[in-house]
Write a structure and sequence with these properties.
The chain is of the alpha/beta class. It has helices spanning about 15-35, 50-60, 80-95, 105-120, 145-150, 180-220; strands at about 5-10, 10-15, 40-45, 65, 135-140, 155-160, 170-175. The chain folds into 2 domains: about 1-75 and about 130-205, Rossmann fold (3-Layer(aba) Sandwich), CATH 3.40.50; about 75-130, Helix Hairpins, CATH 1.10.287. The chain contains 6 helices and 7 strands; from the N terminus they run ββαβαβααβαββα.
C-alpha cells in the first residue's frame, strides 16, 4: 500500500485521496461496463459497521449481496448453495399455500427456524443463477475466503483496500479506510450510482430489443393474403376446330 500512502504521523497512515479518486473512477468505469453487458455484481461486506450500507447499496442498484458470514463454497460449490436456496423457496411456498399446517406445531417450529437461517445467509443471492461478473468487497482481510474463491474462478474483484491490506490481491483496489463508516458509505454511494445507471440502461435496451423481437414475430405470424388469379388464366378452355 506504500504507493497510496501520503504520509505517516504518530503511527497513523494517511491515504493519498487523489489516488483514491483515480482508483474509484477506474473501478466505476469497469463495474458500469460489466453491468451494461448484462452481468451482475456481488457485494460482500460482513463487518458489522458495513453490513447495512452494503445491503442498501446492493438493493438500490439491483445487485446481489452477502452481509452475513461468508459460507465456504458460496461460489466454488454453487450447486450446493443452490440446493439450499431451493429448500428456502420450498418452505416459503409451504407457508404461502398453507401446507406447512399439515405438520405438528413442533415440526413447524423447526421448519421455520430452518427458513430463518436460510434467509439470513442466502437472501441476497436467492436469484443468482450463475457466477457474478464482478465482486465488490469491503475489507479484503476479513473477506479473504470470498476473495480467494473469486480469484480461483477468475472473477474480477473491486475492493476498498486499507493500509494493512495487499492491493495486489484484487483487480481494482480503492485505497480507503474500511473501518470508517463514512468512508465506506461515500465509496459505496459512488459505486452504487454508477452501477444503478448502467443497470437502468441495460434494462431499457433489453426491453426495446424484446419489444422489437415480439413485433417481428407477430408480423411473421400474420397470414399472407391470397394473390388474385391472373385474368382468364384459369377459365381458358381449349376449343376444338369446328365446334
Amino acid at each position: 500500500m506504500k504507493p497510496f500512502i501520503f504520509d505517516a504521523r504518530n503511527g497513523i497512515h494517511i491515504i493519498d485521496l487523489s489516488k483514491t479518486v483515480n482508483q474509484l473512477e477506474a473501478a466505476c468505469d469497469f463495474l458500469s461496463s460489466t453491468v451494461s453487458k448484462g452481468n451482475k455484481v456481488l457485494f460482500v461486506g460482513t463487518k458489522k459497521q458495513a453490513q447495512q450500507a452494503v445491503k442498501e447499496t446492493a438493493k438500490m442498484c439491483g445487485q446481489f449481496y452477502v452481509t452475513e458470514r461468508w459460507l465456504g463454497g458460496t461460489l466454488t460449490n454453487f450447486a450446493t448453495i443452490k440446493r439450499s436456496i431451493g429448500r428456502l423457496k420450498e418452505i416459503e411456498k409451504m407457508e404461502a399455500d398453507g401446507s406447512i399446517n399439515q405438520y405438528v406445531k413442533q415440526e413447524q417450529s423447526v421448519i421455520r427456524r430452518e427458513a430463518a437461517r436460510l434467509v439470513k445467509f442466502f437472501d441476497g443471492i436467492r436469484t443468482m443463477e450463475k457466477q457474478p461478473g464482478a465482486m465488490f468487497v469491503v475489507d479484503i482481510k476479513r473477506e479473504h475466503n470470498a476473495v480467494a474463491e473469486a480469484r480461483r474462478l477468475n472473477i474480477p474483484v473491486v475492493a476498498i483496500v486499507d493500509t494493512n491490506c495487499d492491493p495486489d490481491l484484487v483487480t481494482y483496489p480503492i485505497a480507503g479506510n474500511d473501518d470508517a463508516i463514512r468512508s465506506v458509505r461515500t465509496i459505496l454511494a459512488t459505486v452504487g450510482q454508477a452501477i444503478g445507471q448502467a443497470q437502468a440502461e441495460y434494462e431499457a435496451k433489453y426491453a426495446r430489443r424484446k419489444t422489437a423481437e415480439e413485433s417481428a414475430a407477430q408480423e411473421q405470424a400474420q397470414p399472407v393474403p391470397a394473390q388474385p388469379a391472373a385474368a382468364g388464366a384459369e377459365s381458358a378452355v381449349a376449343i376444338s376446330p369446328g365446334a
